[in-house]
Amino acid sequence: MNTFSVTHACRRLFGAIAGVLIAVALGITPAHAVLSDGFFELDGNTIDPSGASLPDDWNSFPAGQGHTTRITNPDLSGGPYLGIISDTNPAVFRGGSKDIQDISAWRYDLGSSPPKDDMLHAYAAAYTATTTTATTTAGDLLIYFGADRASFNGTASLGFWFFKNPVARNDATGTFINPVTNGPATHAEGDVLLAFEYTNGGAVTDVHWYKWTAGHLQDMGTIGVSATSVAGVFCDADDKLCGSTNGGALTIPWNGVIQAGQFFEGGVNIQKLLPGSDSCFSSFMATSRSSDQPNASIKNFLLSSFPVCHLTVTKACESAAYQSATNTILNTVRGSIVNDGGGPLTNVTLTDNPTFDAGTFGFFTCDANGLPTATPQDPATLASGASICYRGKYTSNTLSTLDTVTASASTGSGSVSGTASATCTATPPNAGLSVTKICDVDLELVSGKLALKVNYSGSVTNSGGLALTGVEVCEAHEQTYTGTQTPCDVTHTTISIGNLAASASAPYSGSYYPTQALTAGGLSTLADPELSLFKDQVMARGTKPAIVGGGIENSLPNEATCPLCK
After folding, report:
1. Could you tell me which of 32, 253, 427, 537 has the fewest CB atoms within 10 Å of its CB?
2. Of 15, 31, 26, nearest to 235 (Cα)?
């Protein structure tokens, strides 16, 4: 047997009231919670005449619906029989392994049991009641389970374990491990064993139940069951436990025609069985056994994960805003945490990678669309079926960031967690630089001689949305340009500006002593000095931030003309 997940199906109780009303209209008194809760047809067969609608049955668990989460056993070729595991790699308990021992002491061998003791398939599904009726209280965890075996003769006993700790097989050693810690599997306080005895005539004769408490298996006694208005179904008087087997030949799609007693199914209201329990089971095991006693010989078994308590976290990127002052991205993310399991959760937490910026994270109520409102919500408790939303911000140094949140909560006996990821992508603003320039001519006494001096000045403006570093002005005069040369490509004077924030401006100025005096047409002015003009160009450049890939941003050149005579 391979270990596959037997899926939990924690659903709303929207069908329960309708089921009760229909039963009353037909003159049937629904006397038992797990028998008549509107979720599941506990009737000694697998037929599901309602199809995708509630109540369910093993033949056709609905797939792809938002309120149910189940897996398909690969051995059934991807068919619709969800929540069913098959004995593909048979194993039997080794002699000496008893229910009274901790799981760490159990041992098994690969191989099959005799047909009477050989289970071929096992089933499990869980539902959460969210409406209170005459037989069920909102929040009750209802678990349905079953198995079919290779043959049947006389009286049989089946046991169903519900473990709070994760339990998995280790076929290499014939032991059971905790797949989370990879250490030996162990019992947890509140593990439950239900042991049923029944006859091939279809009568469930005895239900013995046990609870692991204070480090040992406590015998909780026998629960008496009696026949109900549904043929072949036996329930107790307190509306918490039922069992049923097929009294005649039955066709099940995954096993063909089986004879009386080869199929068994049961149901239990865990809250009524264990008042006050958190009921957060993690694993499920069906066993064939010699009796319903705690020291019974255990035969073969089928084991699967059964995450009754569960949460689902979602995440979306709400915005990714470029911060021009720091050349970073401020990302805002939001999402919800849904308790879609069968028990209440406490101490809900959420961590983010990258980490949320200080003071930006909060829990809020959710609106009808599952989005956070502006109303804070306390994460101390989260009832089954309830949601809590969150919003937070984090700063990144890249335009696109994959962000992952991890939501965790306490179940009382342990914890559950889930993750979700989203990518925030920002569109950066454009870069831009512009430069202005003016000039004038002065006469200045230099070394006892009268000389011409050209003064120039202007401003550099960061006209884009990116902060630039290393901004400088290239001033070139009396230069000849070829091709696409700019003032920064020829001999020039460099004037350092430094860093320039988006939309900021900075002044610059300088002077030089010209060595040429030309006309506007570039001719000598020796004959007409009053026509002399002095031209020079400036251009600004700066380095773009690494977040956009770096590189140089250049302004367009700007030229100023200064006539000698105005």
Report:
1. 427
2. 31
CB 277 within 8 A of CB 270: yes
The terminus-to-terminus CA distance of the chain in angstroms comes to: 102
Query: What's the token pair of residue 108?
Result: 């098994």
Query: Model confidence at 24, in pLDDT bands (50, 70, 90)?
Result: very low
- The CATH topology of domain 313-425 is Immunoglobulin-like (2.60.40)
Asked if the bond preceding 307 is cis, omega within 30° of 0, the reply is: no
Q: What pLDDT score does 469 carry?
A: 96
Phi, psi of 530 (to 5 degrees): -65, -15
Instruction: Name the band, by pLDDT with cuts 50, 70 and 90, for residue 178.
Output: very high
* 3-state SS class at 504: coil
Nearest to 333 by CA among 305, 310, 356, 311: 356
What's the CA angle centered on 85, arms 80 and 89, to 5 degrees?
130
Segments of 233-371 assigned E as strands: 233-235, 241-245, 250-252, 256-258, 263-269, 283-289, 298-305, 312-313, 316-323, 328-338, 345-353, 362-366
Over residues 509-535, the pLDDT tens digits come to 999 998 877 766 665 556 567 777 888
The secondary structure of the chain in percent helix, strand, coil, rounded to multiples of 5, reads 5, 45, 50
Contact 11, 128 (CB under 8 A): yes
Residues of the chain with CATH 2.60.40.10: 433-563
Inter-residue contact 132 to 271 (CB < 8 Å): no
pLDDT number for residue 295: 81
Average pLDDT of the residues in 188-196: 93
Nearest to 45 by CA among 328, 355, 252, 345: 252
Domain at 433-563: CATH architecture? Sandwich (2.60)
Interatomic CA distance for residues 82 and 65, integer angstroms:
12
Segment 367-398, tens digit of pLDDT: 999 999 999 999 999 987 899 999 999 999 99
- Quick: pLDDT tens for 444-457: 888 888 888 999 99
Rounded Cα gap, residues 248 and 193, in angstroms: 28
Residues 251-278: what's their mean pLDDT?
A: 88
Burial label, 10 (beta-carbon count in 10 A; 0-12, 13-18, 19+) = buried
